[in-house]
Amino acid sequence: MHDAGVSIQTIASFLGVPPTTVHDTIRRFQERGHIENLPIPGRPPKLNNCDLRELGRVLQQHCRETLVSIKNLITADVSLNTICKAIHHLGKRSCISKKKPYLSPRHIEQRLEFVHAHLHWTVNDWSQVVWMDESSFELGEPVTQKRVWRTPEQKYDLDSMAVNHQSGLRLMIIWGPSVDRFKLNLL
Questions:
Q1: Cβ(171)–Cβ(139) below 8 Å
Q2: Which of 21, 26, 30, 170 has a CA that sits 20 to 30 A from residue 96's CA?
Q3: pTM (2 decimals)?
Q4: How far is CA 187 from CA 49, 131, 136, 173, 177, in A?
Q5: Element (DSSP H or E) covering residue 139
Q6: What confidence category does residue 124 fall into, taking pLDDT thresholds of 50, 70 and 90?
Q7: Pairing relation of β-strands 98-101 and 161-164?
């Protein structure tokens, strides 16, 4: 537009930007022949794109490994701090894995049978049911937490969940019944 004789002020009002922006863009194009930013000066990153892709593949296959183990699995010779920053750049964090109850094939079959048997129940049918909610607390030494490298969206992926088995510690179990919309005393 500027080459056609249109003024900077007219171009700025047409584009909805300040006139200084239009002036700087025209000057940059006349000096360089393009309007893209120049490359950022400074030291190049330790890990190139190929190394980052390799790190992503290693994390996908070995998401439960420690940072030291991951360092040994990749080919790039960099520090743990650099690997940790690169993992964060990939959007992954070291998180405590969600617990998933162990379900045997028999349990899965029984749950599916229950769902199919009660598929057509109405709200009134469900209001006649006494619901029990259970919370269990292990007494004794704390259970070790399993960590996994994952993104926030992978919170409930099966690969990033830890199967919860009985640990052999004493359990304290509390039940809380409720009927329709009324809560009853804890048992």
A1: yes
A2: 170
A3: 0.53
A4: 58, 13, 12, 9, 8
A5: strand 130-139
A6: confident
A7: parallel
